[in-house]
Amino acid sequence: VNAKATAHLLHTPTVCGANVFIVWKKVDRGPGANPRYDWSSVDEQIAPWVKAGKRINLIVWATTYGARGSATPDYVFAKVASVECPSFGHVPVFWDPTFMNDYQSFMSAVVGKYGNGASIGYVRFGLGAGGEIFPACRYALKDHGFSRETWRKYLFEMLDYEKSLNSPKQLAVGLNAWD
Fold first, then answer.
1. Which of 18, 30, 67, 131 could be bridged to 75 by S-S, CB 3.0 to 4.6 A?
2. What is the dihedral of CA 152, 156, 159, 163, to 10 degrees?
């Protein structure tokens, strides 16, 4: 579907660019891997848009939308508590310091790799479901301390970390209402 959409939209003058999703698990092979990051799936997606002179916005997923998916690397799940739920599948306890540290390392790597890209419009890091801040699996996470206060604290800590990256590109956030 993406290939067909790209072929059709790439040369449409009213289309100024595309959103490309970076699935953390597809890129980060773990701290023991050399090289640790395999950016080829991202680079392949953005290449035709760059060649056409269009902007690309990068949306980073730490979790997916859907019961069968997982965007969190297995090495992270081996170290942090997690839950399963019908809408979002396998999800980590987001506010676990180990999860936050591992995801922050990936955030830094994304900004290091694409932060100076002339074709990059903005980068958006999903802090909850997919590329958003919606608290994926919030009911299942109640057994691990989920509350409005816990979620808010986690979000602000992660947003403060994003700010500390001093990204040359704008960092965006996907705001969602819930409850």
1. 30
2. 170
In angstroms, the Cα distances linking 92 to 17, 43, 62, 110 are 32, 27, 9, 20
Q: Is 3 helix (H, G, I), strand (E, B) or coil?
A: helix
Write out pLDDT tens, residues 50-104. Answer: 999 999 999 999 999 888 888 999 999 999 999 999 889 999 999 999 999 999 9
Q: How many CA atoms lie within 13 A of 147 on its CB side?
A: 4
Q: Are 158 and 135 in contact (CB under 8 A)?
A: no
**3-state secondary structure (DSSP) of residue 161:** helix
Q: Which residues contact 163 (CB under 8 A, 6 or more apart)?
A: 171
pLDDT surpassing 80 at residue 178: no
Output the pTM of the full model: 0.94
The Cα 65–Cα 57 span in angstroms is 19
Please give the Cα distance from 17 to 122 (Å, whole number): 11
- Other C-beta atoms closer than 10 Å to the C-beta of 143 total 10
